[in-house]
Amino acid sequence: MAKLEEPQNIPPALLDLYRGTLNPHPTGNIVKKRYPYRMPRMQEGGPGVHSGQKAQRARFKTAMADFRGVSQAERARWYAAEPPWSSFLWYYNYFIMSSLVGNADAYNGGAGVIKSIQVLLDSVPAAMPKDFALSPVVDASKTIVLLNGSARKVPKVVRGKGSVATGGSTLAIGDTIDPDKCTVKLFGTGIKDGGGAGAVAVYPYVDAHRATEIDLKWSETPDAAADISWEITEHVETEIVPVLVYVHNDEVRVSWSELPDGAAQVSLTVVEYI
């Protein structure tokens, strides 16, 4: 059996191999073979083992069994570089990640283990989609995107004026609105000769209201046409939610469910699974 001579000067290229093959903590300066981590057999199920330890051990064994069913290509997607063969990172990471998402069981088989999470924030313009670049790139077929944020539509106010004939007039509003969501204010009066009482004011009213036109008439017939101004408020205040247009390996496109009044901030949580 090999003897240990101090100090040790192991080249970095051989350190992982050394740690995976030999015991790094020798006793009596004797170098011994290093065995895999495992619970001593005399303790498995024995009275000195806590129930929580048994449950944790069972979960780890389940994760190891599930891990064997994952292809090498899917395992490699976890890491930019494969971990050292002797480090047990394959099993350890699989166990921890499975535990975090609660799928370290025989039914899920680890299919939902998260590989990466990206959180992105930017302003999405009102009139066009916004492309969010992904770095690192993902496998779009194994990626979900969560959207958070909203834009708004606020009440629209349309103002204008026109001449209303003595018998009434149909005037163009100058915009397109929803008559069922509008209130109208009129400003101005006509004049009618009241004889001995002098001039009498005559007030206009809305006879009909359409998407692009308004019909105005007089409460009494005035002596001549008169100019009337209006203020029409379309009550359309609402929240506009973002929608996902597509997910590509290097890009996510986001737009709005309908055209908002302006740009707004949207955050993305991009989750890629193995």
Description:
This protein has 274 residues and is an alpha+beta fold. The chain has 3 domains: 12-101, no CATH class; 114-153 and 238-273, Immunoglobulin-like (Sandwich); 156-234, Sandwich (Immunoglobulin-like). It is 17% helix and 35% strand. It has a 3-stranded antiparallel beta sheet.
| H/E element sequence | HHHHEEEEEEEEEEEEEEEE
Instruction: Find the structural class using helix and strand composition.
Output: alpha+beta
Helical content stands at: 10-25%
Number of domains: 3
Count of helical regions: 4
Q: Widest sheet: strand order?
A: 1-16-3
Q: What is the arithmetic mean of pLDDT?
A: 80
- Percentage of residues in strands: 35-45%
Low-confidence stretches: none
Radius of gyration of CA atoms, rounded to a whole number: 38 Å
* Overall 3D form: rod-shaped
Largest sheet: 3 strands, antiparallel
Q: What is the number of E strands?
A: 16
N-to-C span: 44 Å
